[in-house]
Write a structure and sequence with these properties.
The protein is an alpha/beta fold. It is built from seven helices and 18 strands. Strand 15, helix 5 and strand 16 form a beta-alpha-beta unit. The radius of gyration is 20 Å and the shape is globular. One of its GO terms (molecular function) is RNA endonuclease activity.
Length: 335
């Protein structure tokens, strides 16, 4: 008996007749989180966590058919018990637990195990089969505690202000930007958001997510207000005419890919900070072992190498799934 199978529309649970994060239009879809590679337009009905609601409506349309659940709430669909559990990736990110006739499968979506103070921390869920990303599934990826990273970001910002320069940080509009905003030292200067990030902030705040409410950059904002300020912008704004209003400025990119020297050079920013909303090598192993799963399905990332490690070292059966999920692959564009 299989509770999940991979189809040309995405991961499918035949017993419940629903898809998890499908990439083509279907009748019923459970969405693990609101990033664009997991939450797509065109489904007849969506099911997601409460904190994903306003952002999904912002991105997919206010009139979508969307039902929400809280973590731990159980819904019976054709005899399959469905529940959502914290993934720690971004606000509202969820692992989907499917239970049917004694078998448990968990589809984790994207996740990280460090408590970021914004998302509900990753919760290990015991299961027989576990679907895991492995975006950063190689030993070279090892994250420092976020407190150290944010101390470096604040020190960089302060140094820029002392040199008479403004600061611009490029990061994902959903999840990472809010995480950065909440950890900036506001005593250094004012903080502003690009319109895309400000709109996302407002959607999350209206959903009860605790985010520092900062002003939006508008055409009417006097240039003098940006003196010594830090501006959060999506990577798509890099090199655009929109940036001219902040001159003179220094730029930074926040991404797990900044762990690689070549990626720092290709980013076109002045500096790169290693900050990811995905689990690093040790985080992936810790999360997978904590589920006690007998079989692990791997999506997007170093599936072959990570799968070999799981089978040869951890003695866990691993199967690679060819999905359309991108993880942090598009991190230097926008997500």
């Amino acid at each position: 008996m299989s509770l999940i199978e991979l189809t040309d529309h995405g991961l499918y649970c035949p017993q419940a007749e629903l898809f998890i994060d499908p990439w083509k239009p279907v009748d019923k879809a459970i969405i693990t989180h609101a990033h664009a590679d997991h939450s797509r337009w065109g489904m007849k009905h969506y099911l997601a966590h409460h904190h994903s609601e306003k952002v999904m409506r912002l991105r997919l349309g206010s009139d979508i058919s969307l039902e929400t659940m809280e973590y731990g709430e159980i819904m019976d669909i054709n005899g399959v018990k469905v529940s959502l559990h914290p993934a720690g990736h971004i606000p509202g990110s969820s692992q989907v637990k499917l239970s049917y006739k004694g078998k448990i499968v968990v589809i984790s979506g994207d996740y990280k195990i460090e408590d970021d103070g914004l998302s509900k921390q990753f919760e290990p869920v015991k299961c027989h089969e576990f679907v895991s990303e492995c975006t950063f599934g190689m030993p070279i990826y090892k994250w420092e505690p976020q407190a150290i990273v944010f101390a470096s970001i604040n020190a960089w910002w302060k140094q820029n202000t002392e040199q008479g320069r403004n600061s611009v940080i490029f990061s994902y509009s959903l999840g990472k930007s809010q995480r950065i905003i909440n950890n900036l030292d506001a005593s250094i200067g004012d903080i502003f958001a690009h319109g895309a990030i400000w709109n996302t902030n407002q959607a999350l705040i209206s959903n009860g997510v605790p985010i520092r409410d900062i002003p939006k950059v508008t055409a009417e904002t006097p240039k003098s207000r940006f003196k010594g300020a830090l501006i959060i912008a999506p990577p798509s704004a890099m090199g655009s005419a929109w940036m001219k209003k902040f001159a003179p400025f220094r730029t930074a990119v926040c991404s797990g890919w900044m762990n690689i020297r070549g990626a720092k050079k290709r980013s076109a920013a002045d500096i790169g900070f290693v900050l990811s909303d995905h689990a690093d090598w040790e985080g992936l192993i810790t999360a997978i072992k904590s589920t006690e799963a007998e079989k692990v399905y791997l999506t997007h990332g170093s599936t072959a190498a990570f799968g070999r490690y799981l089978e040869e070292v951890e003695k866990i059966q691993a199967v690679a799934l060819e999905t359309l999920f991108e993880g942090e692959a598009a991190d230097l564009a926008d997500g």
